[in-house]
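forwarding from the other thread:

> can someone predict this with flavin-adenine dinucleotide?

sure thing
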Amino acid sequence: MSAPAESPTEDAVRAEVRAWLAANWSPDLGLLEWRNQLIDSGWGAPHWPKDWYGRELPLALVSVVEEEFQRIGAVGVPKGGIRTLAAATLLAHGSDMQKQKFLRRILTGEDIWCQLFSEPGSGSDLAGALTRAEFKGNHWVVNGQKVWTTSAHKAHWGLLLARTDSDVPKHKGLSYFILDMRQPGVAVQPLRQMNGHASFNQVFFTDAMVPPEMLVSEVGTGWAVATTTLMHERRGADALRAWGAGSTRPGRIYDEERAEIATVMEPYKWYPQRVGRVEWVIERAKAMGRDHDPVVRQEIAKLLTLSKSAEWTARRARAAQELGRPQGPEGSLGKLVSSHVARAAARVHTLIAGAEAMLAGADGPVDGKIAEIFVSTPSASIAGGTDEIQRNIIAERVLGMPKEPRTDTDRPFRDVPKNVVG
Ligand SMILES: Cc1cc2nc3c(=O)[nH]c(=O)nc-3n(C[C@H](O)[C@H](O)[C@H](O)COP(=O)(O)OP(=O)(O)OC[C@H]3O[C@@H](n4cnc5c(N)ncnc54)[C@H](O)[C@@H]3O)c2cc1C
C-alpha cells in the first residue's frame, strides 16, 4: 500500500493559487465562462476529491485559497442554497452518473435545488415520512405531500426522502431520490410567513416520475443519506451568510454574480434578521438615547456575553473539524445556542425600541427591520431541527442520558400509529 500523500504547506498553496489567479482571473469574463475555468483548475472546490473538480486540500487550507480570491476580488463558486447540501450528499453517496450530471452544474450555479424532507405529519419525526415512491414499469412513481420546502418555487431539482417499504421499521423503509421539479406531477404552492416573506412552499406529488438512475445509493438506505444532508445543513449557515453579501465592485462578472445572488438568495433575504442582528444593538441603543439606561446596558452585556461565547465555541468546533478531529459537544451545542442568542437579541432590540418595535415596514425603526427581527427569530428554534430535538441529542449523545422511550421503531411502519391518514 502506498503512503498517504503529504498535505502541501500553507505557503505552497498560497503561492500556487496566487500564480494561477494572476494567469487566469479577469473581471471582464462572463460568470459562466470564468466558473468553468475555475472548476477545471480545481481551485473552485479545493477540498473536493481530485476526480470531482477538487484538489483534496484539507479544510484548514481552504481558507488560504479564499483569502487569495478575496485579496484580488476574484469571484468563486456559489456557496449558498440547498445545492451545497446536494453536492455534499452526492459526493458521499451519489453514483458516478449522478456526480457527472450534477456536480459541475452545482459549481457553475446553473441549477437551483430544494430539500423535500418535511411533511405535515413528519418534521422532527422525519423518519415517519409518508410520501410514497413505488416502482412501476421502468420508473419510480411518487405520490404525497411535502411542506416548508424553501426555494421549491425556484428549484430545478429536489432532494426527496420517500417511503418505499411500509413492511419494515420506519427508518429502514425510506429511500432518497433526485426529483425533477419541473414536471407535470409536481405542484408547488407558496406559503406566506408571519414576517411577510414567502420562502417556503407546500409541494404536492401526483404520479411524479423519477427514473431509476435518480435513486441515491440503495433502496432502503434513505435515512443514512438524509443524515448526511442534515449534518451539512447544520454546518452550512455561515457560508450562506458570507456568500449572500456579494461584492460591490463594478464590472460585468460582478453584475452577473449580483443578479445570481438576488435570485438564489431571495428566499433567504430575511435570514440576517432571523439570527437576531446582535451587531446592531449598541448602535441602536446610542441612536435611541438608551445607552445610559442601566437596564438596557445590563441586557446588552448579557446578550454580548452569550453571543461571544457562542462564536468562540463555534470557532473551536471549526478548528477541530479542520484538524480532522471527530465532532465534539460543541457541534451539538452550536445550533441550540444560536437560537438562544437570536431570541435574546430580539428581546434587547424590542427593549431599546419600545412599542415602535411593533411597527412593520417603512414606518418602523430601521425600515421595519426591528419588527422583522421580532417575527423572524422564532424560526431559528425550528429550522434544521427544533430546540427540543437538539436538547434530546445533547442529552442522549453528549451527556449519555437514557434514550427517550420509543414505541415506533420495533415494528413495521405500517403498524405504527400516525397522526395523518396515509
Ligand atoms: C426557516 C425554515 C426553513 C425550512 N426549510 C425547510 C426545507 O427547505 N425543507 C424541509 O424539508 N423542511 C424545511 N423546514 C422545516 C423544518 O425542518 C421543520 O419545521 C422542523 O424539522 C420541525 O418540524 P415540524 O415543523 O413538523 O414540527 P413538529 O415536529 O411537529 O414539532 C412541533 C413541536 O413539538 C416538539 N417536538 C417534536 N418532537 C419532539 C420530541 N421527540 N421531544 C420533544 N419535543 C418534540 C418540537 O420541538 C416542536 O416544538 C424549514 C423550517 C424553517 C423554520
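The chain has a mean pLDDT of 92. thats all i got for now
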